[in-house]
Structures are given as C-alpha cells and as structure tokens.
Write a structure and sequence with these properties.
Radius of gyration: 51 Å
Number of strands: 0
Distance between the termini: 145 Å
Shape: rod-shaped
Order of helices and strands: H
Structural class: mainly alpha
Helix content: over 70%
Strand content: under 5%
Number of helices: 1
Largest sheet: none
C-alpha cells in the first residue's frame, strides 16, 4: 500500500513535470510564431509608411502649386483693380479741373466783365 501511494505521488509529480515541459515547448513555439508575425508586420508597416510619405510629399507639392497659382491670380486681380481706380481718379481729377476752370472763367467774367454796371461783392455769393 505504501508502494502504491508512493507510485501515485511519483506519477502525479511526473505528470506535472511533463505538463510544465509541454507548456515550455508550446510557449517557445508560440514565441517563434509571434516574432515572425512581428517581423512581417514591421516590414509591411515600413512599406506602407514609405508609400504614404511619397504620396504626402506629392500632395504637399500640389497644394503648394495651387496656393502659388491662387496668389498670382489674386495679385493680378489687385493690379487690375488698382489700374481701374487710377483711371477713375484721373477722370474725376480732369472733371474737377474742367469745372474749376469753368467756374474761374465765369467768376472772372462777372468780376471784370461788369455786366450792367454791377460791381462784384463777396457777400453777393451768399
């Protein structure tokens, strides 16, 4: 009976040792699989990042070109508006000068022309 109990204990101990060794083998196998997966994923990630970097650089260049084109167009439009405003101001100045000359001529004609003996007086304008 003592022999049977000893054999059962020995058998249980051996079973635990086998389970422990089996788990170690399984862990080692799983460890290798996971390391391979990590390496594959790392390479895939590196390829994707290289591709993204290239497309981002292209997108950035296109955006910069669009911005430059929009800026050139805006500056061209501003130049045209300034030219239009200068022309308008020149026309207004010419009109003002013409009216001023007409008023001066009329004033001089009334002042020195003497119309019916009336003499000019500063309060006559009011």
């Amino acid at each position: 009976q003592d022999k049977l109990a000893k054999e059962e204990r020995s058998s249980a101990l051996n079973l635990r040792k086998l389970s422990t060794q089996w788990r170690a083998v399984l862990r080692e196998t799983k460890d290798k699989e996971l390391r391979q997966d990590i390496e594959i994923l790392s390479q895939t990630f590196a390829r994707v990042m290289d591709c993204k970097d290239g497309s981002l650089a292209t997108d950035l260049e296109e955006a910069e070109e669009q911005h430059a084109q929009a800026l050139r167009s805006h500056l061209h439009n501003i130049d045209r508006l300034l030219q239009l405003q200068r022309c308008r101001l020149t026309c207004l100045e010419e009109g003002y000068s013409a009216q001023l000359e007409a008023l001066k001529t009329e004033f001089e004609a009334e002042r020195y022309g003497g119309g019916e003996g009336q003499q000019w007086h500063p309060l006559a304008i009011l």
